[in-house]
């Protein structure tokens, strides 16, 4: 006996609508989970990037500033050339000419990496206030051929100098240059991109008491202050 076509088994419209609603709910949950995980990943990646930028800057500056004034022969007159809150310029005698088989100090300061300046270039900090003009820029190292980047996305830097008597001076006088024994460096790194779900209203106080911020924007930041002992100064 032939079945009536109106009595064949299938899904009703209500069942289809319920199934679609459940599927939409499940897909929405999956998308929300993925979206949150993606945001967390991007945020973590930017934080790691800032940490790496700070680590790079600190490692390079610490290694070389410790050798400021290195002058084994006592003939090179190595030391602090100029010291301001935004740039540090110093020399060190660490290498010799080709005839010096051990490539040790030769009493001169004309070899590579013996004359160094740290800070922002004038292009990135035209008003010399230690804050990048465009919000963030490359922190640089100049050995005579112009500033080369040692860290990206640095918003601000400040040098503060500890003198022989224990006092500090962010802008020591010419007569105080020979009294510098350590350098305190405050560095503020900024994320490479803004986060619309974040508002930065924090302030950052440098070792010299300068307050950076609040910036009241959507950029995350990382701030660090390090003290570097100049082991060759004052000997």
TrEMBL record:
Listed Gene3D superfamilies: Glycoprotein, Type 4 Pilin (3.30.700.10)
GO aspect biological process, one term: type IV pilus assembly
InterPro entries: N_methyl_site, Pilin-like, PilW
Pfam family, one: N_methyl
Domain of life: Bacteria
Keywords attached to this entry: Membrane, Transmembrane, Transmembrane helix
Segments traversing the membrane: 12-34
Descriptive protein name: Prepilin-type cleavage/methylation domain protein
Signal peptide segment: none
